[in-house]
Amino acid sequence: MTEEPRAGQVSARFRAAAQACIDDPWNELLYGAAGALVAARLLGEDDVARAAISRLWSTWSFDSKLRACIWTEEFDGRRRRMLGFAHGLAGNAYALLRGAGLQSREHQTELMHRIVETLERTALRDRELVNWPPTLDSPASDLRVQWCHGAPGVVCALAGAPAHRALDPLLLAAGELVWEAGPLRKGGSLCHGTAGNGWAFLKLLRRTRDRRWLERARRFAMHAIEQRTAERGLLSGDAGIALYLRACIEVDDRWPLLDVA
């Protein structure tokens, strides 16, 4: 039998991996400092969390054309300024919100100011609906409505933020956009499917206490059941759909892995 690794070994492996993420120029939730921050908070590794927080703040710069602050990510020889949960502003902001207890009140206030300012300046509005492009330079043909890019991810990332008079209307308008867009044709998955989009409704239920969001979440769940496949995995497979169905039954808005503690 293989011997279970000791706690010290696990911690050392985590710290090495986290430092690699903090240093990574991807600088996002999935592969960068934001992911290291969320993991460090879950594991109680506060010094690692502080290092990730420092990295995120030091790389969050003002863009004169946008007239707001945004991160730049570098990968595959390209530099991009992205806005989504998996890749971009929303995911990094989510991580900093998770690490709010390790930051000063001034930083927490500045965090909300920067988040809302950038979301307002990048929002794409159509009547009472709001969406965001994948990157600052995305053409109109590249717009998406899914967890990793677009309104559903922004809602999931920021619905747990402190009450804010400018943020709340943005989140509600984004939720309406998700509802109007309907279930995704891509499938039922969390990352880029109906279940991930529906989770935005569970987040808005918790934030607003308005039961119509639960009804909408459960309607999306019925579509997600029909979209199940034999594909495995949390983000792109049936495991994510199953967890979404359970969340709708138990009325639990916690996103798998990210919101577990």
What's the layout of helices and strands?
Blueprint (H helix, E strand, L loop, with lengths): L6 H17 L9 H11 L2 H13 L2 E3 L4 E3 L2 E3 L2 E3 L8 H10 L6 H18 L1 E3 L2 E3 L19 H8 L8 H15 L12 H15 L3 H15 L11 H13 L11
Antiparallel strand pairs: 1-2, 3-4, 5-6
In short:
The protein has 261 residues and is mostly helical.
Q: What kind of sheet is the major sheet?
A: 2 strands, antiparallel
Q: Which parts are unreliable, with pLDDT below 50 for 5 consecutive residues or more?
A: none
Computed Rg? 18 Å
Tell me the overall shape: globular
SS-derived structural category: mainly alpha
**End-to-end gap:** 31 Å
Count the DSSP helices.
Answer: 10
Major sheet: arrangement of strands: 1-2
Output mean pLDDT: 94
What is the share of helical residues?
40-55%
Measured by DSSP, the beta-strand proportion falls in: 5-15%
In sequence order, what are the helices and strands, one letter per element?
HHHEEEEHHEEHHHHH
